[in-house]
Amino acid sequence: MYSATEGRIGNKKVILAGTNNYLGLTFNHDAIAEGQAALAAQGTGTTGSRMANGSYAPHLALEKEIAEFFNRPTAIVFSTGYTANLGVISALADHNAVVLLDADSHASIYDACSLGGAEIIRFRHNDAKDLERRMVRLGERAKEAIIIVEGIYSMLGDVAPLAEIVDIKRRLGGYLIVDEAHSFGVLGATGRGLAEAVGVEDDVDIIVGTFSKSLASIGGFAVGSEAMEVLRYGSRPYIFYRLSFSVLHCDRALVVKNHCLTTRVAAKADG
């Protein structure tokens, strides 16, 4: 790979049309230096899962950084964006729950709902009216329903009608989870995603994201209220995962870099 948009196949230079390296941070010098220093100082692995002996200061520092970035009291880091969805949704959407999700939701969302055993109700892609119809049919159950949408749908490139969905939630109840995997670092004045761009962050109960898209690294996260802390004791993808020190340090450096980049871009746009 030469850059965020160019690579090589054999001796031929090619355009990377499928890249997720949205901010071009793959070769960010600060992140690479942080990762190299962590490898030298702390070794290649944590030697244990988070629940056992695998929670270290870098885990807590990264979670604190993410929580502060999103202005939320709690952040939980996972090994990937896929396992972040799996860990959060499967723990909340058990056999007693009903989940309303966009028909074009990512595979990780479908897998998480199936793993938890929840009742799944699909609504037509980006169709807030269809969502409302299905919520109304639930009657009193709508108040405890879980609505799941994505900030940007990766295969289609469109965004969720989040303002309309929030309006439905305000009127009929329910909990809202937004997967900002492809919108984190891209949308919003500071890069927090679609919820920030639309101005409805306070109405989103949990935001799930990944470090593997705009931050060009690996790992996933979820942010929410203090009540989300219970997931540390009931989410298997969290309890049994481990993430190397070098990745944790890279991710933390890239969160800071992302904030600097998006703030500069927003300032130029306003100017």
Describe this structure in words.
- The model has no long low-confidence stretch (mean pLDDT 89).
- This protein has helices spanning 29-42, 57-69, 81-92, 107-116, 128-138, 162-172, 194-198, 231-234, 236-239, 245-270, and strands spanning 6-9, 12-15, 74-78, 98-102, 119-123, 146-150, 175-179, 206-210, 220-224.
- The radius of gyration is 19 Å and the shape is globular.
- It has a seven-stranded mixed beta sheet with strand order 3-9-8-7-6-4-5, sandwiched between helices.
- It has 271 residues and is α/β, with parallel strands linked by helices.
- The protein is built from ten helices and nine strands.
- α2 runs parallel beside α10 (245-270), α3 (81-92) runs parallel beside α4 and α5 (128-138) runs parallel beside α6 (162-172).
- It has one domain (21-270): Aspartate Aminotransferase, domain 2 (3-Layer(aba) Sandwich), CATH 3.40.640.10.
Key phrases:
Aspartate Aminotransferase, domain 2; 9 strands; 41% helix; alpha/beta; single chain; seven-stranded mixed β-sheet; two-stranded antiparallel ribbon; 16% strand; 271 residues; 10 helices; globular
Helix content: 40-55%
Q: Give helix and strand order, one letter per element, not per position.
A: EEHHEHEHEHEHEHEEHHH
By CATH reckoning, the class would read Alpha Beta
- Could you tell me the radius of gyration in angstroms? 19 Å
Number of strands: 9
What is the annotated CATH architecture?
A: 3-Layer(aba) Sandwich
Mean pLDDT comes to 89
Distance between the termini: 34 Å
- Reading side by side through the largest sheet, how are the strands ordered? 3-9-8-7-6-4-5
Number of domains: 1
- CATH homology group: Type I PLP-dependent aspartate aminotransferase-like (Major domain)
How big a fraction of the residues is strand? 15-25%
Q: Extract low-pLDDT stretches.
A: none
* Sheet with most strands: 7 strands, mixed
